[in-house]
């Protein structure tokens, strides 16, 4: 497995690749959820293709009061996960490599980013779209794999690829969960032992609410259950169109029930499918 710190040698290596190139963008602190994304990429790439994992804690997607400086950066173990999961290369740039000091160009999605996490974290998705577009241009993948835990991010990146004509297929991977249902996340490390015991209740609340019927009843059920979790503070609980993220008015189209919940230092996000109903 090769490790690249700057774009030029990666691009030289890329020229010799004969098959599909599949990118898995990450911010490091890799866990079994990331490993599943890399294995999925390996399968998509096939024996003649290549899997590139990027590890970059992107400063432009963190707000001024968010956890950029504290975000975990266990590079040695991250590289081991990449190697064991089938990556051919890791791109691990510095912020100075990725951004000029006088940068003035951004990619700003203006519709899907206005709700859910975008409403709570202004500027977050501008940072996400900009860094992912840069990673696409540097690594030149034919496909890129993202987890469905951040459904809004997945929907926004699909829209970016569509609107800007990137010749890249975006592949979503189902959320990887602990045995008790908690979505795998690097930020789970912020949970205290009592908070960790409570956290699976978020997924359970979302899952149980899907049978409530109308979208408004679904949201009411999930919100009520989460409010009963000790220490939980709701950022949002919403039912949205799975593609456009607009508020879901009925169950005639596929939807997602999404939530962001604070438990102590951790802000946990999760979502579940809302299948159509006649």
Could you explain the architecture of this structure?
This protein is an alpha/beta fold. It folds into two domains: 172 residues, Rossmann fold, CATH 3.40.50.620; 87 residues, Pantoate-beta-alanine ligase, C-terminal domain (Pantoate--beta-alanine Ligase, Chain: A,domain 2). It is 36% helix and 20% strand. A six-stranded parallel beta sheet has the order 1-4-3-2-5-6, sandwiched between helices. Strands 7-8-9 form a three-stranded antiparallel beta sheet. The longest helix is centred in the middle third of the chain and has 16 residues.
- Strand neighbour order, sheet with most strands: 1-4-3-2-5-6
Average pLDDT metric = 97
How much β-strand is present in the residues? 15-25%
What's the main sheet like?
Answer: 6 strands, parallel
Q: What Rg is obtained from the alpha carbons, in whole angstroms?
A: 19 Å
| Whole-number total of structural domains | 2
Q: Within the CATH hierarchy, at the fold level, what is the topology of the largest domain?
A: Rossmann fold
Structure summary, number of beta strands:
9
Q: How would you sum up the global shape?
A: globular
Coarse structural class: alpha/beta
Can you identify the CATH superfamily of the largest domain?
HUPs
Helix content: 25-40%
CATH class of the largest domain: Alpha Beta
How many distinct helices? 10
Unreliable sequence segments: none
- CATH architecture field of the largest domain: 3-Layer(aba) Sandwich
| Strand and helix order | EHEHEHEHHHEHEHHHEEE
State the end-to-end CA separation: 50 Å
